[in-house]
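dumping this here so i dont lose it
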């Protein structure tokens, strides 16, 4: 740990890359540590709600954010998983990762989230054998097949639309009585003949032998408590990746999100946070990018005030 970075950004999604870019612009030395460049947005098919860009592929947007951050020579990006962050008595941070241990004046924590699991029998047993969490990543394997998306929010609607490009039939199985998707995507789902929504229904079990062959429902569909399927795509939300922050003494809310103020500050001095891991209600790339920029500005202000 010879070099002391002005900022170590933990996470290389939208918030992390935006924070790194702006910190670089503010002439701070920056190290980004993360394993999924672009984060969740890189697994999104089409992004149509990013201001100034009418339509862009999620992976393409992620690449643009990374290239912008790397345009500043004082920004370094490493593929690495952070295991611990400790603040010393001198106020500096020690960041431990599988690529080494680094010292920083400030930290921007932007780890994002992971896909939430259903928690039903068969989910773990058939993971990657018909149970998936990324429609864009795995949908092409089910060309001409029958698949289901579990969930009814906007992410589930987007997944169903992606899968309709490959599968012959796409069910959406949702516990509620009405989809919670953005109106634009809800309309597209309704207009796509391959997609059928099964309301007021939960999946109790995922069945199969060597791979998925169906699900058990708590509310019979067409008189049958089982629905034959070739694959199940789970889209029931996300869980914040906040364990390392918690161990560092950062305060979380009751759902595990990092608590911040309007300046992206946590209760730990010099420790800032941004993106889907924080306690904001609106989880979108455009919001995460803005939060990352605020975190970078606040980190700069903190360093200048030392």
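and the seq i came up w/
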């Amino acid at each position: 740990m010879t070099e002391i970075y002005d900022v170590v950004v933990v996470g290389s999604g939208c918030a992390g890359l935006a924070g790194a870019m702006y910190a670089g612009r503010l002439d701070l030395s920056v190290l980004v540590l993360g394993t999924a460049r672009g984060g969740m947005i890189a697994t999104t098919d089409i992004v149509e709600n990013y201001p100034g860009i009418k339509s862009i592929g999620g992976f393409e947007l992620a690449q643009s954010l990374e290239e912008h951050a790397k345009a500043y020579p004082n920004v370094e990006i490493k593929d690495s998983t952070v295991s611990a962050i400790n603040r010393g008595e001198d106020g500096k941070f020690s960041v431990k990762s599988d690529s080494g241990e680094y010292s920083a004046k400030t930290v921007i924590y932007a780890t994002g989230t992971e896909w939430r699991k259903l928690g039903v029998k068969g989910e773990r047993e058939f993971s990657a054998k018909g149970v998936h969490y990324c429609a864009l990543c795995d949908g092409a394997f089910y060309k001409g097949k029958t698949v289901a998306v579990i969930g009814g929010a906007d992410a589930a609607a987007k997944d169903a639309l992606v899968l309709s490009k490959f599968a012959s039939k796409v069910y959406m199985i949702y516990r509620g009585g009405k989809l919670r998707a953005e109106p634009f995507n809800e309309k597209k789902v309704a207009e796509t003949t391959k997609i059928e929504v099964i309301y007021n229904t939960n999946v109790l079990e995922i069945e199969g032998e060597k791979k998925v062959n169906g699900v058990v429902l708590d509310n019979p569909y067409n008189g049958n408590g089982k629905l034959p399927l070739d694959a199940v795509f789970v889209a029931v939300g996300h869980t914040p990746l906040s364990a390392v922050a918690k161990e560092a003494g950062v305060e979380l809310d009751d759902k595990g999100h990092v608590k911040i103020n309007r300046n992206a500050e946590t209760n730990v001095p010099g420790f800032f946070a941004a993106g889907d891991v924080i306690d904001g209600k609106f989880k979108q790339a455009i919001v995460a990018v803005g939060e990352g920029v605020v975190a970078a500005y606040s980190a700069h202000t903190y360093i200048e005030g030392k």
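The CA atoms of residues 12 and 252 lie 21 Å apart.
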